[in-house]
Every structure is written in C-alpha cells, then in structure tokens.
Amino acid sequence: MTQHKRRASAQQVIRKRAVVAAAFVGTVALGTGVGVWASSGGDGGATEGGARQSSSGRVAETGDAATPSASPTTGRSSPLSQAPRTIPAVRSHTAARGPGWKPQKADRVVVSDGELADEGKLIAGELGLTYAGQKDDVRAGDVRLALGGGGGNQESYTMTVRDGRVDISGPGEAGVFYGTRTLKQEVHGGGTAPEGVVRDEPAKPVRGFMLDIARKPFSESWIEDRIRELGDLKFNELGLHFSDDQAFRIESGSHPEIVSKDHLTKAQVKKIVDLATSRHITVVPEIDSPGHLGAVLAAHPDLQLRNASGVATKGAIDISKPASAKIVDDLLNEYAGLFTGSQWHLGGDEYQALTVKDPQAAYPQLAAAARQKYGASGTVADLTTGWLNDRANTVRGHGKTMRAWNDGFYRGTSVQAAGDLQVAYWTGKEIGARQPVEYLSAGRKVLNYNDEFVYYVLGQPQTFVYPTGQRIYEQWSPRVLRGTAAVPASYDGQILGGSFAVWCDFPNAQTEAQVAAGIRMPLRATVQKLWDPGRPSLSWQDFQRLSAKLG
C-alpha cells in the first residue's frame, strides 16, 4: 500500500464538504459541537472542507495535508466506551464517546522517535498495516508511537484512541511496546480499540517464566514460540536452567567435554536472546552450583565430592578444591557475554553436604578447608556460603544483578551471603527451613517462585501436582511466597515479582506440545497477578472465555 495521500476530484471535495457541513449542523443541534475534544485535551477541530468523517468514524484526508478533526459521533448520541478486555487487564481506562479504532489496510504506523522502529515494525506487521517510519504529519487511521510523558516507570504507557487515531506513548521503549500489546489484543479477530485513554503499568518489575532445559531438551523453535507468547502477555523474563545432573545443554568453548550431545549452539542461543530482547524480555541464565553439577562432574570425576567413606555425593562438587572453583568460574565468565541481560541466577540450592546430620564429620575435607579459611570455628555451611559469595564476585564483575535459591542461604553462619544477592524463594521444605519474613526482615529483595502455586513439575513427583490457572488466579499473589499465606503488606516493596517455573524431573512425562498446552492458562493467571495483584474484576470463567477469544 502506497504511503502517498489520496487526492479527490474537485467534485468529490464539494460533496464531502456538504457531508461535513450537514454533520456539523446535526452535532451542534445535539448541543455538542467540535469543541468537545478541544475542551478535553483534544488536538484539533475541523477546518473548512478539510476533512470528513468516514463510515468508521475516522477523519479522512481530502487535500495535500491531513487535518485532525473531532468525530461527529463523539457526542451524546454515542455510548461511552467500555474498558478494553486484555490479559493482563489494563489498570486504568478513561471512557469516551466515539467509534474507537479498527485497523484498515490503508492505515500506517509511524514513530516520533527512531528508537521505536522495532516496535513500530512489529505492530505494523501484526496488524497488516504499513510501517511509515519517523513522521511528523498526522493522518487518519494513524498508530503513532512516541517516547515521553508518564512517570519514572519505564514499563508504563498511555494509549489514547481519539479522532480515528491511536497514540501510544511512554517514558521508555518497554512501556510503548506493552502499549502495542494492548492494542494487538484489543483488535484481535477484527475487534475495535475502544475510544478513550488507557493508563497502564505493572505492579511488579519482574514477571518471569523459568524453563528447565537441562533435564529435557526443548527445541529452539519451541522456546522462540514461548518468547512470542510471553511478550504478548507482558512478561519480561525468561529463565534458562541449562546445567544440572542430567545434562549441560549449551555449547561451550572453555569446556567442550561437559556438553551433552543434545544441546543448543551458541548461535541458537544468540537468536533466542535477540528475539527475547526485541520483546523486552531478559534471558536469565542459571548455572547451578555447588550442587546440581552432575553433568560437569561426569567429565571431571576428580572434582566429585566424596564423604569420609569415599562414597560419591550426587551432583555435588568438592568446594575444598581450587580446581572446582576454576571450572565453574570458567563457565560463568564464558556465558556472561552470550547472555547480554543484566540478570543472573547462581543457583546455590540442595548442596548435599549440608543435608546430613553432621557435615563436619561426614566431609572432613570440607571441615578442614572451612577452618583454614575462616578460623577454628569455621563450618561447612560457612565454606558453602563463601563459595556462593565467590561466584557472585565473578558474575558481579560482568555487571550482573544476581539471585540464588532460598535454600542456598544458611542460618547461623559466621559468613553471611553477599548483601546484593536476591532471594529466589521456592520452598519451605528444606532442612532448617526459613520463613520468607526472615529474608525480608533482613532487608533482602525477594522473588516469588512458590512451589505450592507456580511450579509445573513434569511427572508430578513427590507431592507436586500440576498447577491450575484458576488456583493461581483466585488464591495466589506475589506476597504468597510460601504455602498459601501472604507475608505482611509492609514487605510488598521488597518483593520484586516472581516466575512461573517448568521443571522436567520426568522429561518424558509430557511432550513439548503438552507442556505448552498445560502451562497456557497458568501463565496467563500468573502475569495477571504480577501486573495487578489485586482481586481481578473478571471471574475465572470470564477470564477463561477472554483467553479463548484472544487466542
């Protein structure tokens, strides 16, 4: 479709002027007039013969330059618009009278700032419109993206549907992108974006989905499909757990001997990261240590942790050996450049040396290393905390913000975990379990991975059952960190958000397609509660129907 403006013959112009005049008279007779939008922040009125109201309520050009005009249907004869139905729901909509906006082939997407070109091209392609680039002129049917306005939240946006046009603006590119996701959902399947103003922003800055690709190799295309789904739902993190006892799933240059046969190449990972970045999603890698390193240890059995009887401890690396720190740091340094986002997951959970009754007696080499490093009172827990801090130092050098599982933080140690480590709270079942309030009262920032609600564990081992969207939607919130009880509201600001997690303990229990179908509604319920933790306005049944309609 050409970007040039359509011209009308002189006879057509005369006829159109007559239509405008008649519409104007009728509107004034209703006591409204074209000043309605001007008095409510509108950006222009009709000029003599310069524009007409189209059948869709749009302003159509009739000359060399388009002139914005109030819609004659925005008077009292039009009902007030209804708030858009989206997932997650928009947090504020100011209703207005008018026909709204519906995409048509002749429409274009324009940007006021060149930085928004990617967002503009994406929404133009999705809606079948022309991307016209950076333009200052105004045309009927325009979707305009702009930076500026709003508060300091870079994920906030304002979307105004008025005079047959759509304007989406926000202080950051992410917010403008989310505005385009709202527009896409509004007009899905031939619908109309309702007249009025949406003002929207997320309650929580972290809205994540974590995927265990170590136990089950997911294809590149499946992961990319999830990224597109996550982007449309306004998630902003994808966690990749790619190293565990079962496998190591990403190509390595520093230690190719540890890589499993079925793995992603670095080129594939770069494509995944680039696609995620285009959807304002940060990919958060996790190389878990000092436990869950079985795949690494299979190639380096000399680094396997053994107890006093010489029996190997599953998945555990011997943290008393300098070579153990070196191989893990090699990997952390190698992948820091591949994963370009600012977030990193250090793991730290389920180190089996600390699950026995007397770690000092069971692992004398660890006890000796602890005393050597921390003095006579040093313990295996101190040594393990020191290990986590040392790995944090490695990753911190790459400018990353780090998190670790809550059972990687230990009570009663003389060595404290680094103050900038965020707590990924997933369980209250570990030995010496600590309540979430212990971390919060110490001033730590916490992320919600509550295994009671947002853990999808293939095969449903132990006490796990597949989570339902309804239970998340009706009972969970970011403050429900452990079990079913919420922590006090005074800690809400320290809870950064959360992640829905897929773990593949029994990888063959479901196919990729079954996993995608099984997590569909739980993902939508999770993001609804992370975007707005309050009680949803829709019933679960209505939420399901909306989800089916949106596809």
From TrEMBL:
Region Disordered: start-end pairs: 40-108
GO MF annotation terms: beta-N-acetylhexosaminidase activity
GO BP annotations listed: carbohydrate metabolic process
Ranges where the Glycoside hydrolase family 20 catalytic domain occurs: 207-514
Residue intervals of the Beta-hexosaminidase bacterial type N-terminal domain: 84-200
InterPro entries: Beta_hexosaminidase_sua/sub (IPR025705), GH (IPR017853), GH20_Enzymes (IPR052764), Glyco_hydro_20_cat (IPR015883), Hex-like_dom2 (IPR029018), HEX_bac_N (IPR015882)
Pfam family, one: Glyco_hydro_20b
Active site annotation, chain numbering: E350 (proton donor)
Record flagged with keyword Hydrolase: yes
Sequence ranges of Polar residues compositional bias: 68-84
Alphabetized UniProt keyword annotations: Glycosidase, Hydrolase
Family classification: Belongs to the glycosyl hydrolase 20 family.
Protein name as catalogued: Uncharacterized protein
Gene source species: Streptomyces roseochromogenus subsp. oscitans DS 12.976
